[in-house]
Specification:
The complex is a heterodimer of chains A (366) and B (255). Chain A is mainly alpha-helical and 366 residues long. Residues 314-319 of chain A have low confidence and may be disordered. Chain A contains 13 helices and four strands. In chain B, the strands form two sheets. Chain B has a six-stranded mixed β-sheet, with helices on both faces. A four-stranded antiparallel β-sheet of chain B has the order 2-1-4-5, covered by helices on one side. The chains are: A mainly alpha (366), B alpha/beta (255).
Chain lengths: 366, 255
């Protein structure tokens, strides 16, 4: 691994971790698409701040960008509160508007400045190692690692200070405000943190792909755990793994790095979506199949049990009718034989002691 | 409370609330004496939930003042414990039963401070009271409706409040849970606490509550159940939409 490759991955890891932390709360608050709005609206803030200070590397740009992210969120909520259009539509109205103003300003007044629309959309993490932090002649590493590192630190501080406030106001907003917390304040603090994170990540992965890093790792984590803390932790782990493996995929195929990082995120979700032990698609199908077989087994045992104790079989569902096909029926019989709950003798089915007990429990509930 | 019980536990004066151009509550004056158990009844859209919410400032009031034990609600927040409708939250939220109950102690902790062992013990104690101790470490999405309601009640018990506001605590719960909740609420009232609950089932009003507030945007009547819970007031609130007549029922019971 060359120092160049090391630097890119370092930046990617920091970006992925910073995105995953607020991302977990966005996903739980059903606000994933707010990321889309914020990540596009920050461009306007960057440009306006640039007009103000005339320097592309000024920290004022970051503040301007974060402010425009929060502005986008407030505008969306204002449009939404008027109850004239639905929430998703208000998102679709506000951010393309803010973004378009930014694009117009950019193409009219800042044509010779190095903010090109291509890198706004896709970012260019490959350039990260070239812009270095040099203090009194000492090379301290890529500048973006420091910028993004500060944002990561801020995110970590934010959730460790306000973990309990974020948790209660995400779960039950009314209750949170009844006990004296201010969910609106928490909400806007979170939005400010997301905006800052987008600004930082924007250089690296651009305004579209940052959504992948904020939304997808927490979604994977959500399907795998029952604890908020573990969900955040897992989100970070997934984000970092996707970033690093995305880098090597890009390296191997010689393609855009940000693109392949987001692609790996998507693939990761597909795998978790299918294979998550309890909530994955296969897990749910397996559970359904198990329930179906359990029910069929129990029904068969009970109808045999009822015949044994001389109960009129008429009152019970016809045992042949409860199986969808002869194939399924013989499968169920086979399962029960393997478990030793029924025996076959002289072409008929009989309960074993074990089977009789299960049938009795099914009928009597004890 | 140096002034003793001269002040009602809850006093609502001239309360009006509107959503957009629709008036939901109109000029409500209500006094709830301390140590009583009060049902809030009324037809759909009568503003029952809004009353519970606006007492706590969760929806903006157009006009009106709410005081708790004689002081404005804003100063008495800690005296009020709120049990929202069970359906108002996402039960797929990744957290455990005991952690949810612990949220009841967040108000006392204030900003930033984390719950510790003491809060954990308190939460377990509250779960014990609602017969949910064995579920402490269950994920909340695995609970039945009745169990969810018990968890919400346990969370309210953790807050050391004197006024309990419950929004439809019996909505969609099993009979055992309903009995358990009534028992706990009656214990609270016996201990001097005040309970105000949005209630749907007119059949159980006389059995559960001693006081009632009958609501339909405006306040139709409020007072002791044996005095104001009659067909005249119910007709005023529900119009023809109820076939429940308290007199008939008590007559039947007398036979």
């Amino acid at each position: 691994m060359s120092p160049h490759q090391f630097d890119i991955q370092l930046v990617a890891i920091i970006v992925a971790a910073s995105c995953a932390i607020p991302g977990a709360f966005l996903v739980l608050r059903r606000m994933s698409m707010m990321t889309d709005a914020i990540s596009h609206s920050i461009l306007l803030g960057i440009i306006l701040a640039f007009f103000l200070v005339g320097d592309l590397s000024s920290p004022i740009l970051i503040i301007g960008a974060a402010a425009s992210g929060v502005l986008a969120v407030s505008l969306i909520e204002a449009v939404n509160r008027a109850r004239l259009v639905k929430k998703d539509a208000s998102i679709g109205i506000v951010f393309p508007f803010l973004f378009s103003v930014a694009v117009i300003l950019l193409s009219r007044y800042a044509r010779n400045v190095h903010i090109d629309t291509h890198s706004v959309l896709l970012g260019e993490i490959a350039f990260a190692p070239f812009d270095r932090l040099i203090l009194s002649g000492m090379d301290l590493g890529p500048k973006s690692a420091y910028v993004m590192g500060s944002i990561l630190l801020l995110n970590l501080l934010f959730i460790s200070f306000f973990y309990k406030e974020l948790k209660v106001s995400t779960f039950d907003e009314n209750f949170a405000s009844s006990i004296g917390f201010r969910p609106r304040l928490i909400h806007y603090l979170l939005m400010a943190v997301v905006s800052l994170t987008c600004v930082g990540a924007f250089d690296a992965v651009g305004s579209i792909l940052v959504i992948a890093l904020i939304v997808i790792p927490p979604c994977c984590a959500y399907l795998l755990t029952d604890s908020l803390f573990r969900m955040i932790l897992l989100s970070v782990v997934f984000g970092i793994s996707a970033a690093v493996s995305g880098f090597w995929v890009a390296n191997w195929l010689d393609v855009n790095i940000a693109g392949s990082m987001a692609f790996v995120c998507g693939m990761l979700f597909l795998v978790v979506f299918l294979l998550a032990p309890q909530r994955g698609l296969f897990g749910i199908m397996r559970e359904k199949r198990k329930q179906r077989i359990d029910f069929a087994e129990a029904s068969l045992l009970v109808s045999l049990y009822n015949q044994e104790i001389g109960e009129s079989v008429k009152n019970h569902p016809d045992s042949r009718g409860m199986f969808r096909s002869a194939d399924f029926a013989s499968k169920v019989v086979e399962f029960l034989k393997q478990k030793g709950e029924i025996a076959v003798a002289g072409g008929g089915l009989f309960l074993t002691e074990k089977g009789r007990e299960r049938a009795r429990i099914t009928v009597e509930g004890r | 409370m140096s002034s003793g019980e001269q002040h009602p536990a809850v006093r609502v004066t001239d309360l009006t609330v509107a959503y957009g151009d629709k008036t939901v509550l109109w000029d409500i004056d209500l006094e709830i004496p301390g140590g009583s158990m009060v049902a809030v009844v009324g037809p759909n859209g009568a503003g029952k939930t809004t009353l519970i919410k606006s007492i706590q400032g969760l929806v903006p009031r157009i006009a009106g003042v709410v005081s708790i034990h004689g002081e404005p609600y804003e100063k008495q927040r800690k005296e009020v414990s709120y049990v929202p409708q069970r359906g108002s939250v996402d039960w797929d939220f990744p957290t455990s039963v005991v952690d949810t109950v612990k949220m009841g102690s967040y108000g006392d902790l204030g900003w930033i401070r984390r719950p510790g062992r003491k809060e954990h013990e308190k939460a377990l104690g509250a779960l014990e009271k609602v017969d949910m101790a064995e579920f402490a470490h269950r994920q909340i999405s695995q609970l039945s409706g009745g169990q969810q309601q018990r968890v919400f009640l346990a969370r309210a018990l953790v807050q050391s409040a004197s006024v309990y506001l419950l929004d439809e605590p019996f909505q969609g719960v099993d009979a055992t849970t309903e009995k358990a909740i009534v028992r706990i609420l009656k214990e609270l009232v016996a201990g001097g606490k005040t309970v105000l609950a949005v209630h749907h089932d007119l059949n159980t009003v006389s059995e559960y509550y001693e006081r009632i507030a009958i609501l339909n945007v405006g306040l139709v009547a409020s007072g002791r159940v044996d005095e104001v819970f009659n067909s005249e007031n119910l007709m005023k609130a529900y119009g023809g939409k109820t076939s429940f007549f308290p007199e008939r029922k008590s007559a039947r019971r007398a036979v």
